[in-house]
Amino acid sequence: MTSLLRLQQVSKSFGAVAALRDAQLDLAAGEVHALVGENGAGKSTLVKILAGVHRPDAGTVTLDGREVTFAGPAEALAAGIAVIYQEPTLFPDLSVAENIFVGRQPVQAGRRIDTAEMRRRSVALFRRLGVQLDPDRPARGLSIADQQLVEIAKSLSYDARILVMDEPTAALSGVEVDRLFAVVRALRDGGAAVLFISHRFDEVFALCRRVTVMRDGRWVATSPIGELTVDTLVRQMVGRDIATLFPKQDAETREVLLDVRGLTRAGVFADVSFTVRGGEIVALAGLVGAGRSEVVRAVFGIEKYDAGQVLVAGERLPPGRPAAAIAAGLALVPEDRRQQGLVMELSVERNATLTRRWQLSRFGFLPLRRELAAAREWTRKLQVKAGRLSDPVSTLSGGNQQKVVLAKWLSTTPRVLIVDEPTRGIDVGTKAEVHRLMSQLAADGVAVLMVSSELPEVLGMADRVLVMHEGRLVADIARDAADEESVMYAATGQQ
Amino acid sequence: MTAVTAPKVRQARNLRIGREVGIVVAMVLLLAATAIRNPGFLGAQSLRDLLLGSAILVVLAVGQTMVVITRNVDLSVGSILGLVAFATGKLFVAQPGLPIVLAVLAGIGLGVVCGALNGGLVAVAQVPSLVITLGTLYVFRGVDYAWAAGQQINAADMPPGFLRFGSATVLGIPWLAVVAAVVLIAAGLFLRSYRSGRDLYAIGSQPAAATLSGIPVGRRVFAVFAVNGALAGLAGVLYAARFGTVDATAGTGLELQVVAAVVVGGVAIFGGSGSVWGAALGALLLTTIGSSLAVLRINPFWQQAVVGALILAAIGLDRLLAVRMARRLRGRSHA
User: Fold this and answer.
1) E strand segments, A398-459
2) What is the CATH number for B240?
3) Mutate which of A50, A77, A102 to test chain B, going by most B C-beta atoms within 10 A?
4) What is the model's pTM?
5) Average of per-residue pLDDT across B212-220
């Protein structure tokens, strides 16, 4: 087996966060190679290095035995590496055919674009994939599955020697997946290397010859598929020391504080019902795109829902009104702290008191001293490490930023705390502190609802685990019964 | 699984074309209403005047369209036009015998320099072009004022041949309109049928995806600003030829008319869609409104209000069309 592409000792950091540490990968011509790992394990960063989007801080990329560096995506494409990204990369205003051939449209005499030829080739690609799509319609309004099919057609059009597919099947139906697999096998038999990233183990086992597992930005193992079972694979993906990171206290559960009944939003989530009691930490687990963040945002009133209701301590919340949710004692620590959680340019103190401006004000004025005192109290409680409270919050590390977001919401003394990915992209020490804090809050009687994609966090912190799959709540697992396998099985839609 | 049926797509395309038909209809109604009041308004001479009057705006609108398609905007075009118009006059004062072609090339060259400055700043500074070109709007105008120092270039300073070029006709069509038509057709072909032209739509439609697709986004945006500068420079020379008298205030406020023409012409202000044909029709419509209101004896102060209402109507129409198009394109039933 000859190695076509090899990554060795590749590292990449974004600011203080190390996304890849000494990662490695070996792709052979004529193989389908699976890359698996939890969310945040560094798979997408690795893909973007292959695609020339990111340049590695250290390490080498070897193609055909020669070391290469890509200055940009164009060079990686020229070297024969095509990528289907997880997030759609289509141009809504251009036609489907142009989306496939953008930048490489077939030309006729005088370098003019040959639209007839472009259409013909698009139709041929779609026929290979066994789908019918009008090449002349604009990409705007395509369903997610059709967008994915256009992406796949685009990557096929490159005639690439190395094809990277980052969760290509996430939105496809069974028939479409079978078609795609047939095409992938044909490419493999033609000598191409396919790097296949998927959360669906059945696909990995059906399609791939070798599997590389990543965890925390590091390479864990590369093994032939024959030597693996689903159990060993999950253990490789998850395995780490859980006890110290998750200081979970036992708390007595009290009355139901959050009661969600039949919450539905067409095409996003359907019939989601659950309760969270005071003193309880309930985790909402599932794969990216399962609809978890959308559900909690709807509960908080940032997004609309079509049916169902939300009750806080027995009182119904009016839909679509975050102010009412805050008044009822709800707090939401959002997923993306840079975009949604903080005003990056403002000072630490301003950010920390943003939710309480009116409480702190006297006659409509907000005395600086009161603001500072309140900010000082909460940043001390949470041990925020900041130079001065007047520094912009953007100067803090990710972990300390997250603490400021928590301070901002905890200072409203919520009855129900919703945290969305509370420890994403922060270091292990701060993680443990955030976990300790959540545990403490639950012990004080707060109902905590935690959305998390990190299985260890889910298993280590939650009293109960709710699992979502494709917009529906598919499992409600008690702490004693929850383990990696049971949650993963439910999250990937297996029974 | 069924694909979107062909008629649906055809309807959607008709909606797009309908956008341009809408402007034509508005213009026909306006011309008809004006002609009822004053039959002479549809005479050959007054139509010629309309073409002459809109030529400079069309040239500017074509350049602006290319910029807007990439999700940018260039507010400095009025200042570039003014600077180039004054420079052209100065050039003729210094070199009275200069061939017209060389003067045109010199004007375009100065425009390219200004445009390249815009493009370079946008590409390097990563600051929205709205802010950058707002800055250069004042910079270019300031240079113009400093250079002119209160003087004015008069028709007597320019060669008669050059001034004739500004008002003469060929086969009944003003030369300026011919130049504008050539620019329009060239840009239309470029945007429709050349890879780099299509890249502009891709960049405006989804900038991040354009980078991932290997499109040289920075280089294209830089080039589009340089080209827009060149067209603003050309417009400056045309301005000098048409009016003969140029001082440092030439073209002040013109940038807003240009953006208005582009928006009325159906070019999406957030990039990704629109055509130079629509923008040119928008420019023609704005010019027609100016002349019609005069003929209809409507207080010229109303003209601005009418133009404003037109912009709002155009935006409302675009929104409506977008919603209807989305509805028609949605709905692929999953088998």
Assistant:
1) 416-420, 447-451
2) 1.10.3470
3) A102
4) 0.74
5) 90
